[in-house]
Every structure is written in structure tokens, then in C-alpha cells.
Amino acid sequence: MMLTVAESTVSELADIFRLLGDTTRLRITLCCRAHPIAVGDIAASLDISPSLVSHHLRLLRAARIVTADRQGKQVFYFVSDSHISRMVASMLEHLDEPHLDLD
């Protein structure tokens, strides 16, 4: 049985993978998985500038990968939903699996 997926859906999915294909954006997404985290804390943990973090977060928010929650003067970011969390967790598990050499 062949699964049919609309071309627009395939294109949108490719955009998400393209966004997460950038190591900085992937690292930011990983930072946002456990709990809401502020831009300054992300920047400090990744040793990059807050302005660069904000730039990447804007792209991740546009793709609905992360969500923002303003609390007073600070904005906290977290992974938007369980689908993103599960996808990242599944890929991390995939990397931990033993590799089968098919040659």
C-alpha cells in the first residue's frame, strides 16, 4: 500500500527538516525540549550571542517548532508540541541503535 501525501505537505515537511538541518537551530530546539528557557540562557548554554539566538528562534517560531511565552520582561521558549519532542527523541534513539553493515 502506497501512502499518498500532498505535494504541499511534502514541501512543508522538507522546510521543517531544512530548518532543523542547521546545527545551531537544532541545538536551540534541543535546549527548548526539557522546559521553557529564556534567550539569554540559551545563548549562554550554547556560547553564542543572544541576537543570533533570537534570529534562529524567529525562524523556528514561524515554522511552529518552538513557542514563546512572555513572563514580565523575559520571553521563554519551549518546543511547541509533543510531535516535535517525539520526533527529536526518536532521531536521538535512532543514532543510539547499532549500525548494521549490509556489505
Automatic annotation (TrEMBL):
UniProt cross-references to Pfam families, sorted A to Z: HTH_5
Signal peptide (residue range): none
Entry keywords, A to Z: DNA-binding, Transcription, Transcription regulation
Domain called HTH arsR-type: residue spans: 5-99
GO terms assigned for molecular function: DNA binding; DNA-binding transcription factor activity
Top-rank taxon: Bacteria
Gene3D superfamilies in alphabetical order: Winged helix-like DNA-binding domain superfamily/Winged helix DNA-binding domain
Protein name from the UniProt record: Transcriptional regulator, ArsR family
Organism field: Edwardsiella tarda (strain FL6-60)
